[in-house]
Amino acid sequence: MLDRHLLRSIALQSLFEWDIRKDEKEKEDIQDILRKNLKDFAQTENIPPFIEKIISCVFEKLQDVDNIIQQAAPQWPIDKIPVVDRNILRIGICELLFSDRGEVPPKVAINEAIELAKAFGGENSSKFISGVMGTIYKELGEPQKHETSESRKKQIDTENLPSHYLAGVMIYAKNEDHYEVMMAHNIFGYWTLLKGKDEEGMTAKENIITKTKRKTGLDIKLQDKIGGNEYIAFHTENGHIKKKLDYYLAETEYQELHLEEDSKEKKGIDEIKWFKLDEVEKLELYDDMKEVIKEGIKVLKVKKD
After folding, report:
1. Comparing 263 with 212, which gets the higher pLDDT?
2. pLDDT confidence tier of residue 5, bands split at 50, 70 and 90
3. What pLDDT is recorded for position 234?
4. What backbone phi and psi angles, to 5 degrees, belong to 240?
5. pLDDT of 187-204, one tens digit each?
6. Which structural domains are found in the chain, ordered by start?
7. Distance (Å, rounded) from C-alpha 100 to C-alpha 83?
8. Residue 23: its H or E element
9. Mean pLDDT of the residues in the chain
10. 30/15 Cα distance (integer angstroms)
């Protein structure tokens, strides 16, 4: 069985060759390029299923993937990103978003993309790739973020790690005789809750109130805590950090929703919408969000009664 890192490298080489020639009249088919590179670097012309999945994903979802890159790095038009770097991102995003997480865990997808950048990119490529993939991972809800191995936990002095605090809000309002909840839809197809973090001169709670007003125009009042968790995360500049995230119900006045344009462009949220309580749990939600939503609905049903 061929090493997966080698297969990713061959996929990158093949996508690079295709990308620089894609506008030529006599452009070469990606399958032919792939077979040639497999023969040169892996002594086989048979295309392994693993590399076939990567290439197929890149081509089937090319526009979606490139749009995600633009959301995560709006200051870099796709055609201005170096050819190697943009194809590393295409591979990494396909593995992060569209692969089986049991086969390719999110952290593996990110780390492999960074390793490709170190091996084949320019001087600043690995930092750029790390930043973009990290942004996408955070927008995705940081899946499997709690799954730090026991051996790894022992290596990390969790007691002395710097702590970062975040606050999420389940915003609700009374519409005539019933409650509705505002949910935010992101570019990855999930409905989620807005979050704010502690910043200089502003607590996480204060931040999310300000952020909600800026993004949606809603004035919210924080109420009951409905969930939370604490976990170890890795920051590309600061190393390991401890994150504590608390979720709160937040009341507002019911009104027509408008998502600010700059929010659409920079933060990966493409829609906000009101939902009745019995509709919310039927939405496409992140796994670690489901219990929070369930608890929030439970509290709101008690308020209603």
Report:
1. 212
2. very high
3. 56
4. -70, 135
5. 778 899 999 988 888 999
6. 4-139 (1.10.940.10), 159-304 (3.90.79.10)
7. 26
8. none
9. 86
10. 7
Where would I find the H helices in 73-184?
83-98, 106-120, 125-139, 150-155
Return the pLDDT at 115. 96
Q: What tokens appear for 257 in the block? A: 């929703």
Angular region, 27: left φ>0, alpha ψ -120 to 50, beta rest: beta
Which CA distances in Å does 273 have to 217, 269, 282? Answer: 13, 11, 14
If 0-12 CB within 10 Å is exposed, 13-18 middle and 19+ buried, where does residue 7 land? buried
pLDDT at 227 over 90: yes
User: Is residue 181 classed as helix, strand or coil in its secondary structure?
Assistant: strand
Other CB atoms within 10 A of residue 142 CB: 18
- Per-residue pLDDT of 35-92, as tens digits, reads 999 999 888 888 999 999 999 999 999 998 998 898 888 888 999 999 999 999 999 9
Which residue is listed with tokens 């009745």? 276
Contact 156, 240 (CB under 8 A): yes
R_g of the chain, CA atoms, integer Å: 22
pLDDT over threshold 50, residue 264:
no
Distance CA 54, CA 30 (A): 12
Distance of alpha carbon 241 from alpha carbon 185, whole angstroms: 27
pLDDT of residue 102: 83
Residue 173 CA to residue 160 CA, distance in Å, equals 41
169: amino acid identity, one letter: V
User: Tokens in use for 242?
Assistant: 């401890």
136: its two tokens: 């996408």
3-state secondary structure 224-253: EEEEEEEEEEEECCCEEEEEEEEEEEEECC
Tokens at residue 149, please? 């191995």
Give, as one character, the DSSP assignment of residue 73. -
> Model-level pTM greater than 0.90?
no
